[in-house]
Design goal:
binds adenosine-5'-diphosphate, globular, about 20% strand, six-stranded parallel beta sheet, alpha/beta, binds magnesium ion, eight-stranded mixed beta sheet
């Protein structure tokens, strides 16, 4: 069990939110919905769940769920709150994130990602385990948060007013006998009014923050190369500026890894007498154990330099940070709609919003006076959008719509904070129809239900289900597991493409990247008895990402379990030669929206859309003029590239298209 730590208790009492404790408890006691608005660092996330527990607002044994948009936040905050409660993590205080859970029967406060709580809704549509649900960082407006908030409103009608006409008629009786549900919405920006209005004018409780002053510097000129600019700024800080750790915000993993390398080699050359540099990185797809290093106390005579994406922007506290370098960029998932109904999700590097910039700045003033170096001009800051568009307005909807259909909810009929674009809804319905997840009346099919039980994009789930008919489940699972890993298997270094192609020649399958992946997985599995460092070496030699292979193996095990539940069995293949055709056919059934046909001008045109695409130069497909291809994703740089490409027989594609072109849903 955790030991009594008077210092932590003293810190708790000193938080700005402490003076509002009684008022918060009273509001929650008397009202169904409370919106809490407070500056970052005021103590919302760590304290409010504890107030609810200590104030007896969750009953004697009821549970409190607190949602987070990101898994690092969920796990690190659970750890902190367990410490404050002086219990072991996983007992009274726990967490649940995808592929990892630390809870027990005694858990009362549970930190969950919004994805996990949506999954819980599927098996328990009224969330009957919980007396209180806290939606934290609501201002981030992920699509799941929006849908979850809408669901909470419906659940409250059923649980809190089961006899009302308005409570939903026959469905209202579902809520009878379950204690009422309290909902708390917590946000750090001025969206509070919007949330309050959505919940019929719920009270808003304001919590004043107490942050230390942060001195902000802007550049005098636009910086074309933000990585270079970040490096120079870091050198300056390290040589001239006051002590304290440095946190650098970069858009994505690639930039982080390359800058980390540069700073590490710089650090190696420092004389022993000089202040040393410890480099840590932080991005969503990184193994949890590595991210945890960020939270460790910095050794003496050392400056920690943390390179992070916007996962470090809100929610979490990294002790020791005094300097923040903000490149002003982030990666944003965006659904690019074609002119006539086609579209795709892609990640684009974009300018952040003013509210993100303020959050990033705030990370410097958590413990003492801080400094924020913005690698953009003051005018550029003024030109930024005030806050980010909600995700529901800019990402593909097929997956969330399928999840909702499993709950008998149509996204179009859900009362949402903001409505998605109509063309985006139509595209998602078309995708689900082509995948066989819904019928022409928009009803979910048995196949659709099975697809939803996989924690995957509907198309990937469809590929696995199709593999049953083609007796190649094991092969398809291998490939889909790799595609579901959070980082890419194939490293792509533009200057080294020839060298890479040669190193990978023995895996190369002429049909392209999917069966090449399969060959890689098969070879990797033969190293099962080797040491970790031998595996790493093997991966490096072939320019493969070890992390993504290791992660894929874990994901494959999870998927195999879902397969068993769906009665899709893993065929034990004997012998090493794989027949690729059935595998490609299974993938093609799933990737019909990602199929493209060669045009006379040598480019490809989407079979179901109108985007013109080129094969990505990193692709291993031999025949760059294959008549028909399928691809994993489109990436948009100077033009639209298809990445993860395989050729398929054009006749197969034509047959599938004929089958799919049934009347569209009304
Ligand atoms: P909010 O949600 O309002 O932004 P939090 O409840 O997350 O605030 O954190 C409040 C304060 O608690 C932080 O400013 C910091 O001083 C302290 N704190 C939170 N988590 C940690 C941690 N893991 N380690 C050290 N201090 C922490
Ligand atoms: Mg918080």
């Amino acid at each position: 069990a955790a030991v009594h730590n008077p210092e932590i208790q003293r810190q708790r009492r000193a938080l700005p939110i402490t003076s509002g404790r009684d008022a918060i408890i009273e509001h929650i006691r008397n009202e169904d919905v409370v919106v809490i608005l407070g500056e970052t660092g005021s103590g919302k996330t760590t304290q409010v769940p504890q107030y609810i527990l200590e104030g007896g607002l969750a009953g004697d044994a009821g549970m409190i769920a607190i949602t987070q948009p990101r898994r690092v936040a969920a796990t690190s905050l659970a750890d902190r709150v367990a410490n404050e409660q002086e219990v072991r993590l996983g007992t009274q205080v726990g967490y649940s994130v995808r592929f990892d859970e630390k809870t027990s029967r005694s858990t009362r406060i549970k930190f969950v990602t919004d994805g996990m709580i949506m999954r819980e809704l599927m098996s328990d549509p009224l969330l009957s385990k919980y007396n209180v649900v806290i939606v934290d960082e609501a201002h981030e407006r992920t699509i799941r948060t929006d849908i979850f908030i809408a669901s909470l409103k419906t659940i409250q009608k059923q649980r809190n007013h089961p006899t009302d006409e308005d409570g939903g008629g026959k469905s209202a009786t579902k809520g009878a006998g379950i204690p009422p549900l309290k909902v708390i919405i917590m946000s750090a920006t001025m969206d509070a009014e919007k949330f309050s209005k959505f919940f019929d004018k719920a009270s808003i409780v304001y919590v004043k923050g107490r942050t230390h002053p942060v001195e902000i510097f802007h550049t005098s000129q636009h910086q074309a190369d933000y990585v270079e600019a970040a490096l120079k700024t870091f050198y300056q800080i390290h040589t001239d500026r006051p002590d304290g750790d440095v946190l650098i915000f970069l858009p994505g993993q690639e930039d982080i890894e390359s800058l980390a390398d540069t700073i590490r080699s710089f650090a190696k050359r420092l004389p022993h007498t000089a202040k040393q540099v410890l480099v840590c990185t932080m991005f969503a797809s990184q193994p949890a154990a590595q991210i945890e290093k960020v939270f460790k106390t910095t050794p003496a005579n050392t400056r920690k330099c943390i390179l992070a994406t916007n996962i470090a922007e809100t929610s979490i506290t990294i002790p020791g940070v005094v300097h923040v370098i903000d490149t002003g960029k982030h990666k944003q998932k965006r659904f690019l709609a074609g002119d006539t109904g086609g579209g795709f999700d892609t990640l684009l590097t974009r300018d952040i919003s003013q509210s993100s910039a303020m959050q990033r700045t705030g990370r410097a003033g958590r413990e003492s006076k801080g400094y924020c170096y913005r690698l953009y001009t003051e005018a550029a800051f003024k030109d930024m959008a005030r806050s980010l568009e909600p995700e529901i307005a800019r990402v593909g909807l097929a997956s969330p719509m399928l999840d909702l259909l499993c709950l008998d909810i149509e996204l179009e009929k859900l009362e949402l904070l903001d409505r998605p674009d109509e063309s985006n809804v139509v595209f998602a319905l078309k995708a689900l129809l082509f995948l066989g997840a819904i019928d022409a009346q928009k009803r979910i099919t048995p196949l659709g239900r099975k697809m939803a039980s996989f924690p995957l994009e509907p198309s990937h789930a469809r590929a696995i289900l199709a593999s049953k008919d083609h007796a190649c489940t094991r092969e398809v699972l291998d490939i889909i597991s790799v595609l579901s890993a959070s980082s890419k298997l194939f490293m792509d270094i533009t200057e080294k493409r020839d060298e890479i192609a040669e190193a990978r020649a023995k895996f190369k399958h002429s049909s392209g990247d999917h069966l090449t992946i399969l060959n890689v997985v098969r070879s990797y599995e033969q190293l099962a008895s080797e040491t970790d460092s031998a595996k790493k070496k093997w991966c490096r030699k072939h320019f493969l990402n070890e992390k993504s292979l290791a992660e894929a193996m874990a994901i494959r095990e999870q998927l195999r379990q879902v397969c068993t539940r769906c009665e899709v069995y893993w065929k034990v293949s004997i012998g090493e030669t794989v027949d690729g055709d059935p595998v490609l056919r299974s993938l093609a059934a799933a990737l019909i929206l990602n199929a493209a046909i060669l045009q006379p001008d040598g480019t490809y045109k989407q079979a179901m859309g109108h985007a013109k695409v080129k094969i990505h130069p990193g692709s291993l497909l031999t025949d760059k003029k294959a008549p028909a291809i399928i691809y994993d994703e489109l990436v948009y740089t100077t033009q639209i590239y298809a990445r993860g490409v395989s050729s398929i027989p054009k006749s197969d594609l034509m047959q599938m298209l004929a089958g799919a072109l049934k009347p569209a849903p009304q």
